[in-house]
Every structure is written in C-alpha cells, then in structure tokens.
Amino acid sequence: MSTPDEPIGFGESDIAHGETLLEVDGLTKYFSSDSGLFAGINLETDQFPPVSFGVDQVEAVDDVSFEIKMGETLGLVGESGCGKSTLGRTLLRLLDPTDGTISFKGDDLAEMSGEELRQKRSEIQMIFQDPQSSLDPRMKVGQIIEEPMRAHDMFDDEGREARAKELLEKVGLDPRHYNRHPHAFSGGQRQRINLARALSVDPDFVVCDEPVSALDVSIQAQVMNTMEELQEEFGLTYLFIAHDLSVIRHISDRVAVMYLGHIVELAEKEELFENPQHPYTRALLESIPVPDPRETGVRGVLEGEVPSPQNPPSGCRFRTRCPRLIKPEEYDLTDEQWKHTRAFMRAVKRRTFEPMTAPEIRREFFGGDTPRGEAGEIVEEAIDLIEGDGEYQGDEDDEREGWKRATDLLLESFAERSICAQEQPAYELESELGTGTHFAACHLHR
Amino acid sequence: MSSEPLLRVENLKTQFFTETGTVRAVDGISFEVYEGEIVGLVGESGAGKSVASMSLLRLVESPGEIVGGTIEYKGETIFDLEEGPDGELREHPDMLSESEMRERIRGREIAVIFQDPMESLNPVFTVGGQLREFIEINRELPKDEAKAEAVRMLREVGIPDPEDRYEEYPHQFSGGMRQRVLIAMALACEPNLIIADEPTTALDVTVEGQILDLVDDLQDRYDTSFIWVTHDMGVVAEICDRVNVMYLGEVVEQAPVDELFYDTKHPYTSALLDSMPRPDRTVDELEPIEGVMPEAINPPSGCRFHPRCPDAREVCTRVHPENLEVDQAEGYPHRAACVKHDVFDVGYDESVPLEKGDEAETRVGETGSDENVDSTVEEGQASTDGGKANEANQTNRSPNRDGGESRP
C-alpha cells in the first residue's frame, strides 16, 4: 500500500446512514464462577455419592437483543455489575459469547475466528475507561496511534506517520506531540490519544466503555464535544457505555438500560428520559441528584441491593426490588392491602425489624388491619411464626427457624406466584415522543 | 446566622515540600461551619479539597505541612501560629497537643468518612468487632455494652439483620453497606462535626440516593454538622446548606446553596455549572472550560483562574483577588474572589479584555507542550511585573506536565 492521497476517511462505508449496522440477537455470556482443576466438582455431604458435578454460572449477559444503526450513538446505562461492560466486550469478541448472534454488516461475528476475525477488527474498535492503563507507558504517542495500522498492514511508514499526525490534530492535540510518551499528558489528553488510536484504522463502529468517567467535569465536556465532532466528520457509530445518566442523556440518540444482565428498557433518548416505562428506569432517574437546589422532587429510593448474578430471580430480574411488583391473581386484595403485604414480605426477608408481638406487627405493617381471605391467612401464619421466634430463648440457630419459615412462606405464597416471577417480560410500546419503538421489559404493559 | 461558629478556619495554608518545589495545595482558605449545617467543599481533582479537610484534623503527613492560618473548634485552638522572639513562627501555646487531638477531638468531636470504605476498614477483622472496639475505646464502655451499642448503630444506619452481619468481614459487605458501616462508626461517638470526603463518589447512583437519604435523616435526628467534600454539583444542590467552591488551593466563591446556583458570582462556578451535562433536561451544546487546571506548584499570576476565564481582562493577570463579600443572602455573606465585582475597585471595567490569542497556552490539546509553557512565561512577563509566579514558572518547569490530574 502507498501513501493515501486522502488520509482520513479513506475506506468509504458500504452501509448508508440510518441503516442497521449491527444486530444482536439473543446474545448471552456466562462465566463459570470458578476455574480451577476441580472447579466442576462440589462436595455434598447430605447425599450419596457425596460429590456433584457442574459449575456455578454467573449470568453476566442473558439473552440480549438490539440493533445499532449506522451513524447513531446507542447509550448503554446501568449500575456496576449489570453486565454492560461484558456486553461491550462480547460484541467485539474480546470475550466469546455463550450463545446468540452478533451480525455486523451481515457477517456473524460470533461465528468468526482466527485471521478472519482479526481482519474484521479494523472495522470495530474500543475505547477504555482508564486513560492511564490503556496506553503503554514505554511507547511514544506516535507509535501508539500507528500500532493498529501496522497490525492491519495499512500504508507504509511515512503514510502511517502522516495519518497519525493528522489524527492528533483531529482529536485536538498538537501534531508536534508525536514523539512524546503518554505520561506527559493529562487524563483528558490521554483519552484523546485513545480516540486517535481507535480511529487510525478507520473503523465504522466504536465501543466506548465509560470513556469520560475518570475525567473531571470540565474535561468531560471537552472530550464529549470532540467525540461528537469526530462522529459527524467520520460517520462513526458509537456504543457508549456509562453509568452516568447525565452523560448518557447528553451524547446518546437512543438509550438502553441494563439490569442484572437483561436490557429492561430501550427507547429514543427523549422518550426514555421523559416517559420512562420500566420501574427500574424510573428509580434510576429519580435517584440522580439534580444540580438545582430548587428541585425539590422526592428522591425515589430503591430498597435493597442487586441480587447475585449467579442465581438471578426468575422472570423479571428486577422483581425482588420492584416498587410495583404485580399482585398474584389468585388473591383478592385491594391495592392498599397488596402494598402492605408486599412491604411486610420484604421487611421479613431482609430482617429489617426486631422480633415483636403479633399486634405490634399488625400495627407496624398493616395499620392494625390484616387482609382477609386466603392471603390474610398466610399473613397471619407468618406473623405467628415471627412472634414465636421472639419468645424462644434457646440456641441461636433454632431461634431463627421461625423467621426463616415465615420468609419462605411469604415468598412462595406471594412473590413466586406473581406474573413477574413466572414469565420474562418483553413488550414493544408506542413511543409518545419521537417515532421509534419503545421496548420495556415490564409486565405492567401486558 | 447563629451566634458562634462551631468551626472557624482562617487563612489556612497547607504546603507540600517536594523535590520539584513547594506545592501550595491549600493557599489561604477561610470558612466557617455553624451548628447543624452541611457545608460543601466543591472542586475538581487537584483543587485541594481533600488536603483542606485533612488539615482540619491536623492529619497532613510529610512532606505536607500546615504552614499558616488558624483553625478554631468550639473556642479551642486546633491550629495557630505566633511569632517568636526572633521573628520566627512557632506553634501557639493555646494549640491543642497531639495527644489532646487524638483523645478528645478526632473521632469524638470531629469524625471523618472517607471515599473508599474498603480502605478504611481492616479486612482481617469483623465489621462488628471494629465498630465495637471503636466504641469501647472512645466511649469507655465495657465490652458487652459496646457490642450492644455497635449492633444498635448498625441497625440505625439501615444494615439489615445486624446481629448476623456483626460477625461478617468487610469483603462480605457491598460498597454501599460498607459506607453505611463507616457512617455508623462516624456517628458512634455522637460527634458535633463530620467531615465526609467524597463519601458517595464510588457508589452507584441508586445507592448514593440511599446514603444521601440516610445522612439527611440522621442529621435531623442528631443535629450533626457536616463538611461535605465533593466534585458533584448535583450532590451539592441536594444536601448542602452553604457551599465553598475551591480552585487551585483557594476558595473562589462562598455562598448559600441557592445563591450559588441562581446568583453565581464567580466565573469559575458559572463555567463549572455550564460544562455539566444535565440529568433533568437535554443540553444540546456543552460549554467546556477551556484548558486544564494548572498545577499548584506553579499557579498563574494574579487570579489563578484567569488563563481559563471567559471574563478575564488584563488586570486579572496582575491582581490577586481576595475572597471578598460581594452580597448578602439569608443572613450569610456571599463571597467571591473575582475583581469584576465593584468592591474590588481595581479598574476591571477600564481594563483591556484578554485576547483569545493571549491564552494560547490554555487551548485544548496544547497544555501538555513545553513550547506552550514557554509562551506562558513570555506572556506572563509581558503583563506582570515579574513576580514570584514567573520565577516559579521558569525554575519549576516540571517534566511531567500532568495538568490538573496530578496530586501532591
């Protein structure tokens, strides 16, 4: 190859703006939680033979489907541990998917391997969170930017240098910095070097994994503005992974919200932020501290913690914390009674209160008036079990027995019988704002 | 305004003496904390907020040293200097001794919550054990009472099933739960003041919400004062009563929270607010602050923000503004360190606005270059009378121009 006449944007893409660039279907990534020699063998003392086989699986990403259009920015937001980074890496085949397809320009990346996959990587690039550790401190900036081009055999030495210098300028750095080492740059500038490196092979698609989270607010804005300019100029498509909803709102065209390995909601930006349809998205939006002291809206605080991805809840994975868990159909409860029962069930499960007498429990959780009918009987039984627990003055382990039985009883009778526990939700809704579709994984929309 | 402040800080200076020069991490800050209020200390990384808060407890370690100023807590002197017979500065005789600080002040009167709860808890002892020991020593309770108190505190900060979790180790707690443990520890001696150093920064947004709610709730019940160190203007708006904005070792604006957001008096504060993406509305165009924060080893002459300031004029390169009262609000002063306000009267209105070209050194992407450090010096010489800052500029040209990211 020779020196290009038009160094930037040389490979014209064959996909028009707005057409589907990447389509992910049923993508799943499980990790085995243990990887030693005997990892698959578990000792079980209560059975014969006293061993069992099988590896615990961490369901990091489970059955995720979406598509990304040419030239758009898809924001992927979620809390730590929800699987957003794993999803990003699996898309690039930095991790091997357990199941599902990743169709990029019509080719299934999940099926590719070896040289074919390596070649394909010139079209998909990644930017990492930590601008410090993603740059080799012993290499000069020029070398860092040229390395991907060398790996893909693009241009000769002079051509690569010319392109590296041009890219430095494009990302807002001085081309004279070509011979410096990364340590001479601030965090924001290092992230620009990362950008230049990713763009050197003229990719169509860039996965950005928390690219601005390590930066100060004022520097964040600079880098985001540059990323937007580059997108415009080179027709890039971004998957922008972040935990910060403000950043996501600023940079994205469409937004996907992840919770515990599932995408729970996906819609155009304005629609998602102004008309959120999943209780988790609402909770997230309500939790952000708004930089406005006159904003007095109530903070919607989510109870409890994210369950372990090793053993995620059935059905909707958010149901164990959901403030709108749907009442099981077999019980005849008013909304108010169901609210009380649900709160009581969760308080028992999390043991947030001291053992107390039955009247006290009734007063505390039900305003003195427990529901009637079948549901009422179950509640009364649980109250009795807990009350018995408080009186029992014996061995520590036995003391907890009644409480444990009450927890199991309540969960089996209520939580497990809700539609939320029985079916995995997935609904397409009409958008109120904008024209796109609105995906919400919540049975409230059934 | 209630009568006497709980804590009064005046002209506090903390410096780090390094091989490449003196880092003026905190350079003459003054503020007060009154009973029952949450005072914010806001700024970007490298602004000196953490050093300032650690100085309050005299917890600055070598090569750092508090070199000047006064810190008074409830009428007692935590730090003060006086002039000795030979004109040298020495510690004031009223100053609390190290053992008094340790036995009476730290933990009992002023407690700290750090950003990273994993580093503040010892991984080889149980959570409950650590909390119990802390209560046992500081409140001089017998072991069993201390244990009961520890369990009570754990329940108080919302840890489910506290008896069982008392026996667990820190790694078995999630980040939010660990932060709750630290809050329990800080509250255990019912201190009057808690210094919270970015306590929610490492947490997820829903967990952050839980912790902010908890703090709100506990503050109502115990009437504790807080110094809340953060970089997040959202958190500031949510919980602070009054705010100090720090830039490069100085407090540049001090105001009640509503004033700070709605009647902003310092260009840095405005720029910070304009550069943030918002969660509650879509901002089409962010206005970033140009350049990066310079190093505290080598601060710009005059106003330290002038190389990045959109309102900068020639006078800003010469005159170093004090943090003066420019307005009153809710009975508290609104102070700002910007000469564009009338109280300064240094001829800002007549002064020539700085050309964009003069600020070449702050242009995005050029901050890392030696050539541009040179141009800073040249520009500085043209516009100043060759003060200290210029000498520092020439002698301390650090090979590692790490912008605002470096910490002392």
Automatic annotation (TrEMBL), chain A:
State one Pfam family annotation: oligo_HPY
Keywords, in A-Z order: ATP-binding, Nucleotide-binding, Transport
Q: Which PROSITE patterns does the UniProt entry name for this protein? A: ABC_TRANSPORTER_1, ABC_TRANSPORTER_2
Name the InterPro entries on file: AAA+_ATPase (IPR003593), ABC_transp_ATP-bind (IPR050319), ABC_transporter-like_ATP-bd (IPR003439), ABC_transporter-like_CS (IPR017871), Oligopep_ABC_C (IPR013563), P-loop_NTPase (IPR027417)
User: SUPFAM superfamilies per the record?
Assistant: P-loop containing nucleoside triphosphate hydrolases
Q: Which CDD domains match?
A: ABC_NikE_OppD_transporters
Residue span, ABC transporter domain: 43-285
GO molecular-function terms, A-Z:
ATP binding; ATP hydrolysis activity
Gene3D superfamilies given in the database record = P-loop containing nucleotide triphosphate hydrolases (3.40.50.300)
Q: Name one GO biological process term.
A: transmembrane transport
Keyword match Nucleotide-binding: yes
Q: Which domain of life is it from?
A: Archaea
From the record, what ranges are coiled-coil? none
Provide the family line.
Answer: Belongs to the ABC transporter superfamily.
Q: Can you say what this protein is called?
A: ATP-binding cassette domain-containing protein
Protein's organism: Natronorubrum halalkaliphilum
Automatic annotation (TrEMBL), chain B:
Give the EC number(s) under which this enzyme is classified: 7.2.2.11
Q: Which residues form the ABC transporter domain?
A: 7-273
Q: What UniProt keywords apply to this chain's record, in alphabetical order?
A: ATP-binding, Cell membrane, Ion transport, Membrane, Nucleotide-binding, Translocase, Transport
Q: Where in the cell is it found?
A: Cell membrane
Q: Which reaction does it catalyse?
A: Ni(2+)(out) + ATP + H2O = Ni(2+)(in) + ADP + phosphate + H(+)
Gene3D superfamilies named in the record: P-loop containing nucleotide triphosphate hydrolases
Please list the residue ranges that the record marks as compositionally biased, kind Acidic residues.
368-377
Which Pfam families does the annotation name? Answer: ABC_tran (PF00005), oligo_HPY (PF08352)
Region Disordered, annotated ranges: 350-408
Q: Which GO terms describe its cellular component?
A: plasma membrane
Which molecular function terms from Gene Ontology are attached? Answer: ABC-type nickel transporter activity; ATP binding; ATP hydrolysis activity
Composition-biased stretches, type Basic and acidic residues, lie in 353-364, 399-408
Domain of life where this protein originates: Archaea
Oligomer and partners: The complex is composed of two ATP-binding proteins (NikD and NikE), two transmembrane proteins (NikB and NikC) and a solute-binding protein (NikA).
Protein name (record):
Nickel import system ATP-binding protein NikD
Organism in which the protein naturally occurs: Natronorubrum halalkaliphilum
Please name the taxonomic classification of the source.
Answer: Archaea, Methanobacteriati, Methanobacteriota, Stenosarchaea group, Halobacteria
